[in-house]
Design a protein that fits this description.
Length: 60
């Protein structure tokens, strides 16, 4: 049986790209909720990669 995970939610927010900042940062709230602030450029690249992978799978 796999290890149980702490219950909680993760919310994502986008922030403007800034040089020198990490690609994402987490803000942990009481109760296990996490707010993850994600760099817009990283988010766009991830969406592009996911769209390309889906298109490749559908074209087969």
């Amino acid at each position: 049986m796999s290890a149980s995970r702490k219950s909680g939610k993760v919310f994502y927010t986008l922030r403007p790209s800034r040089e020198g900042l990490p690609p994402f940062s987490d803000i942990k709230l009481p109760g296990g909720t996490i707010i993850r602030r994600v760099d817009e450029a990283i988010h766009r690249k991830a969406l592009s990669n996911a769209a390309r992978a889906l298109k490749e799978r559908l074209d087969r």
